[in-house]
From TrEMBL:
Its EC number is 5.3.2.8. GO terms for molecular function: isomerase activity. Transmembrane segments: none annotated. Belongs to the PrpF family. Pfam families: PrpF (PF04303). Signal peptide: none annotated. This is 4-oxalomesaconate tautomerase.
Length: 365
């Protein structure tokens, strides 16, 4: 029984998130049994997740399930699962680009991909959307370098994470993926819902962009202050449900997508200032796919935020400001007869191996 012998697990930080990583072969094949097990592993439902691995926040209550890929274009398959904190749910309706940053190193750690003597590319199929990404990271002597030695080009810092670590470059094939099937799933770059202009966009993460000023905020507030505003929360909840209908997502009252992003003019030399809702808790930074989606949405003329942004010259990074600093991404897109096409999406992240061992789930109640 898993409760008596434990389950192999690698606890990893990926970008500004943290999660439990498993080989698919170490978990039940039946999704219902798997999800029940993961709830018990993470300590959900409980706002502290005191009886499991979860960190009492959506950013630290995440799971990655990895397996060899049957696709010729990929080395491994990566299924992302968001696990609730105080509510018992497990959902696969979104990807996670921060956790994605640790998938390549995990694949090497578990022997799914052989490492080169200098740097290694791992081709990853994101099962949630079917999209592809390549993670490139240093592997001197065939071992993952998490710290950032000379072979990695030195250590880098990412805002929202203490210290410095080895860089991991995530390259997506054109778009970073779309679970809704379109970059602008409503068919327009700007819609109006309940008196508020919105842009529905999905370059890897279904997202609703709104001007912070239209919701009575500055867009520079501390996340805790935004979370404490009950009137804002109620307004955003209604806008999210209406926007999801426009995006063809149906009833999302029990889902974690679409995300909501409030926009304001940049004030720290970036391209745009953001506050991201997950969709209730406020991100202390911004997700990888969220940043790539914000950049793509704002670059389209006529979209919400286009007039607020300081757009970079072609070929330069789009700097997304967030509560703990900024996140630079690269997105190239071109207008077409049907709208816009994303031709490149790239992000730089770091990851760290925290603990490798066996996890013991709490017993069934």
């Amino acid at each position: 029984m898993p409760g008596s012998v434990g389950i192999p697990c690698l606890l990893m930080r990926g970008g500004t998130s943290k999660g439990a990583f498993f080989l698919a072969s170490d978990l039940p094949a039946d999704p219902g049994e798997r999800d029940d097990l993961l709830l018990r592993i993470m300590g959900t439902p409980d706002p502290r997740q005191v009886d499991g691995l979860g960190g009492a926040h959506p950013l630290t209550s995440k799971v990655a399930v990895i397996s060899p890929s049957a696709e010729a274009a990929a080395d491994v398959d990566y299924l992302f699962l968001q696990v609730g904190v105080d509510t018992a749910f497990v959902t696969d309706r979104q990807n996670c680009g921060n956790i994605l940053a640790a998938v390549g190193p995990f694949a090497v750690e578990r022997g799914l991909v052989g490492a080169s003597e200098t740097q290694t590319d791992v081709r990853i199929r994101m099962v949630n959307t079917g999209s592809l990404a390549t993670a490139r990271f240093a592997t001197p002597g065939g071992v993952v370098d998490y710290d950032g030695g000379p072979e990695a080009g030195g250590a880098v810092a990412i805002d929202g994470v203490p210290g410095r670590a080895a860089p991991i470059r995530l390259n997506f094939e054109g778009t970073a993926g779309s679970s809704t099937g379109a970059l602008f799933p409503s068919g327009q770059v700007c819609d109006r819902v309940d008196g508020v202009d919105i842009t529905c966009v999905d370059n890897g993460m279904p997202t609703v962009l709104m001007r912070a000023a239209d919701l009575g905020t500055t867009g520079y507030e501390d996340p805790a202050d935004l979370e404490a505003d009950e009137g804002l929360a109620a307004r955003l909840a209604g806008l999210r449900l209406a926007a999801a209908e426009l995006m063809g997502m149906g009833d999302v009252s029990g889902a974690t997508v679409p995300k909501l992003v409030l926009l304001a003019p940049p004030r720290a030399g970036g391209s745009i200032a953001t506050r991201s809702f997950l969709p209730v808790r406020v991100h202390t930074s911004i997700g990888v796919l969220g940043a790539l989606t914000v950049a793509a949405g704002i670059m389209a003329e006529g979209s919400v935020g286009h007039d607020l942004a300081t757009l970079p010259p072609p070929g330069e990074a789009f700097r997304v400001e967030h509560p703990t600093g900024h996140f630079d991404v690269e997105v190239a897109m071109h207008p077409t007869a049907e709208g816009y096409t994303v031709t490149r999406s790239t992000a730089l992240r770091t990851a760290r191996k925290i603990f490798d061992g066996r996890v013991f789930p709490r017993p069934r109640r």
